[in-house]
Amino acid sequence: MEKNKKPDEFYDTLRKMGLKVEKEINKKIKDLLNNRRIINQASMESNNIAQAFKWLQDSMETISALGNFPTKRDIANVAKMQVQLEGKIDHIEDMLSNLENDHRPKGIHSIQAESAEKDRKARKRARLRAVLRSMNQGVGS
Fold first, then answer.
1. pTM tops 0.85, yes or no
2. Is 92 part of any domain?
3. Backbone angles phi, psi at 15, to 5 degrees
4. Which residue of 44, 81, 93, 102 has the fewest C-beta atoms within 10 A of its own C-beta?
């Protein structure tokens, strides 16, 4: 019984000391983060870094235009246009499908049309997933 009590006291004391040190560290961090001078300095530095990134991005755009190779922004724009184009194509396909359904007798053709519509929508989702995946890979690299 005596042996079990000592490790429990040790861990209890260790836990209390850990909580005390954690409180002190958290207080120190809060004090540092609430320091107005540090906040102003970080704000100025972040503005400088943002301007440097903007300049670098614009420079890369200029260089890419001279070298005639696409940038990430160009690829993202093409991907957006592709998604818009697919939406327009799907809209046209829907209009054609509606026209066909209006002039087709009901029955087996109706079932086939519904199946074809489901297949078309599944292909559309797969194409969009592929485009989004390629966009994410292009932007991530």
1. no
2. yes
3. -65, -45
4. 102
